[in-house]
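Predict the assembly for these two chains.
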Amino acid sequence: MPDALLATNALTAHYGDFQALFDVGISVQPGEVVAIIGANGAGKTTLMRSITGLLTNQPGMVTFNGAQIGALRADQVAKTGIAMVPEGRQLFQSLSVEENLVIGGQMGRKGAWDLDKVYALFPVLKERRLVQATALSGGQQQMVAIGRALMSNPELILFDEISLGLAPIIIKSIYDALPGIIGEGMSAVIVEQDIAKALSVAGRVYCMQEGRISLEGRSNELTREQISAAYFGV
Amino acid sequence: MEWINAIVQGVLLGGLYALFAAGLSLIFGVMRLVNIAHGDFIVLAAFLALTTTSALGVSPLLALLIVVPVMALLGYVLQRGILNQTLGDDILPPLLVTFGLSVIIQNGLLEIYSADPQKMNAGAIETASLALPGDLNIGVLPLLMFLVAVAVIAALQWVFYRSALGRAFRAVSDKQDIAQLMGLNKAHVFGLAMALSLAVVGIAGVFLGIRTSFDPSIGPGRLIFGFEAVIIGGLGNLWGTLIGGIILGVSQNIGAQINPGWQLLAGHIAFLIVLAVKPRGLFPRID
């Protein structure tokens, strides 16, 4: 796949002596939505941290738009057009809702997303824009986290465990909103423990197990048995 | 009347203490760094102003135009070059390194300027005063310094809560990793915070050097006043820091009124009382 927007090439990652990723190779085509599933500790979040530059690697281990970004710092990676909705929302508690959104857009990347468009997508945020961000409900906080990532007008957006800790009805409304968010030529990587949710929005799936890619395929071609085997290693 | 005078002078002195404290409070708020060398940077700024005034023959107040930018630049370089390397989960390295800086600055100043007390002369403005009803005289210079202190606190407050730079300060202070994801280079943001802190130190140093005599050894004492003003006012609250400085200044002057030897003691006692009654300070930030 020569024209991949994002690719990891034999990516490895360590925390001290502990190796968290082994030869991970994934790719995301322009406009594609890819899901990464796997149990706790499979290395999904480490993979996200490596892509975004929160963990730095060898330059060639991550390429984006043809450029080697593996060794860049997170702030440099962000400016190339990768945004992340981090696990657990991670809003800035000292900032208001609107400030959280504005700070996402301050890199000045041009594109369709601005405050008005985020407020149109999540009208409740406009009503509460002056409130301290962490005073919102969990679902509303997730909207802020998504809006904050969109404000940078990324080419690729990473969603790390967006349904974790939210009520089912909130999860449903967020997943219902996803196609409208991603549909604008943006590519996305969705990290998810809920396999059904992941398969419902992603065209292609990678399954991770113990720091390795254990299965890869199109969402509509994989069987439950294949996924179970790759997920649990049984 | 002497008592009212002591209180008024104490309030004005409190403005200077608030200037000592504001920079300290700012960098603690942004990067949880306690700068043990803060007082020595104030003295360094005073000597820098002294050299500027004698080399250029200008008034100390004009020397601000040179001292403030030089101190800001020094702050940025210091942060990027040294202090950023000390920040981490462990709070000990920045304490040790800034303690080391304190020793280096004191001895460097001693080597260059000797231990002789110095004082800057601001000219006629130093002796000008406003006569208030009831036999009360307010020096123009102390009043000016107080007003500048209030303006500096107001400006810092605006930067911190209304500007893009302040938004970056607060974001990095909240969550360093996530702030990086927003395209903020925390090493640069910390550098800017230290630059702002030492710019305020520049103002404080010049005012100190006009108001009293100074020598290379008095930095740690100014650091203590700064600490006390911050703690009395409540951590993270800049207006509280101004109030803290005023309480400290008023206590010292009341103490001195009772007995000249009690000036510093009275300030420390006021600090201890606040610490005992309200350990988080009078106006802790609500969150």
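The interface with chain B takes residues 52-54, 73-76, 78-79, 83-84, 86, 90, 92-95, 99, 102-104, 106-107, 132, 148, 152 of chain A (CB under 8 Å). The first strand of chain A starts at residue 6 and ends at 8.
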